[in-house]
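Many introductory courses stop at the sequence. We go one step further.
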Amino acid sequence: MDDLNVWAKPPRPVLSGLNGRPRTSNVRYTWTGPIDPQLYGDGLKQLTRNTDRNLSRLEKEKKEILPSKQRHLGGPAQPPFVASSWHDSTVMFAPWGTLSTTSRKSSLADDASTVSSISGATNFCYLCSTLEEHQMHLMRTRIPKKVVVKKPRIVYRAPVPKVKPKIEEPKEILDWRYKVVVWTGDVPGATTDANVYISLKGDLNFLYKARLCRGNHTQKFCFCRGSRETFFIKSPRLGNLEILSIEHDGLEKRHSWYCEKVEITCMKTHRQWVFTCKNWLSLHHGDYSIRRDLLANQVERTSNEYELTVVTGTKRMAGTDANVFVTFHGTDGFSPKIKLTADGQRQVKNLFEKGSQDKFHLAFKDIGEIRTVRVEHDGKGLAAGWFLDRMILQNIKQPSIIYYFLLNGWLAKDVGDGHLWREIRAKKKLAKEITTGKPVSYQVTVRTGDVRYAGTDANVYIIIHGKKGKTKKLFMDDTRDNFERGQTEVFEVTALDTGEITRIQIGHDNSGPGAGWFCEDIKIKKFLNRENVVEFLKNLKKKKKPKKKHKKRLSDKLKERALADIPEDVTEDEESESEDDDKEGSYRNVFDREGKVVKVPVYEEYFFVCKNWLATDEADGLIERELEVKKQSTFFQDRDWQST
């Protein structure tokens, strides 16, 4: 009976089922908790039965709880293991009671865990599930690990190689330009399409083998017989040229080339050199050489003498005692900076007085056609500000060559942007004021800018320039408060006919407080009178080419026209001009097929853009500006409507 009681199941405490539900008869307890074996099959049922038997056996066999210091980790040696039912292979789980008892005892121990002595044989850890796992755990913990002392690893570091630093040669700055003109001789067989190269040696530097070509360097260039070819090359500053080497890479007879001469001009200093060749560059002519070294012959440029007239304005405090300088810029260079003095003496106090006209004799090398002049002064002396009206430059040897430079502005520190210099464009002709002719009506629309202090109370005027001449000053004023900020105003003025308008001058007299004015743009309508209309129609007829009469014949062109449904009376000239004829003001729109006038011009409209200040304390300090035509158009009406 005792043996049977050993295997008898102990009474189980009444516990709640899964998820808090009442336990059913099928629930079994394992080390993981209650499990229903009906859910997992027969194998799990057998496992739960063994677990129940083990729980009952452990309840009877437990004797004492060892202190926490005698755990299998670092505890004293235990007596040898006594064979018992634990050695059975069917025993797999730790007893439930042992786990619960151990957990209660562990709270009283110094350390956090205790173990139970099973049958007085060996220690058993509640963390292990089976005896075999427990013994393997003991073996692993008791075997000391050998400390392997690693030998220090020797790291080889190669020494830094001693490499000489590369000395980069400074790149040459090619900021100079040279003009190269090559003449090919007018002899038979002088043409070549070989690649031509030149090398230049100066007293400051050297240019090596620059190819003479245009555009893409991969394209061929042909030097034709009797031709003159111009090239531009970039180079460092060479100074005074001494030797030119010219060569080509042609080896065949067709590459033979006869070079007449080479002319080189520096575009900065405008010095000129000529290299005379007059020889063959060929392996089949002359001395069988394709390279020539030529010596330079510098060309001295002729000097021109001019008479300069400087007109000082009549404004208050317009004169100056400062030193005045001028520099002229032309198509082929520029003159040196010239100081304007009287007969070479420093009699500055008698020059540039209010309303005076001072004349000076100037001489400098030919710079071609003069385009601009830079006038400046050093600002020395009392009241150094200077009001320059205009300058006139006339060639003494050729009096017909005259240049006009109009400014009508200040060169002063306290006016405008404070600059003491101005760049003035040259004019070859000045429009004369028209005194005879029939007057025409002009409608001037002026728009003042929408910027701060843009309005003015000064007297604003306009001068209209045309192909026939210019008008006098036409002041624009009426009963309104004119030229206020953001306003657009229309004025009707009457003046003599100037022909087709080319430009205008807009300005004011700088009177009143806050005279500065910001002008946005100007539009002028010129109403045409009878003479203008007749002149316009005559000029339009002259531009029209007469029709060519063709005989009617069955040619290929007529057949093509018939297939394309093109009328036979349309000529080739009319087809090419069809697009131009469709424009407003063209011959086809003004005249009909019989040559009668269908439309007549009514007025011409010109548009000018300013967008600048006319003020002494703003921008460049100018109170008068010259504006070019930005847009031009002509408006027409039917002749029948005009006659009614």
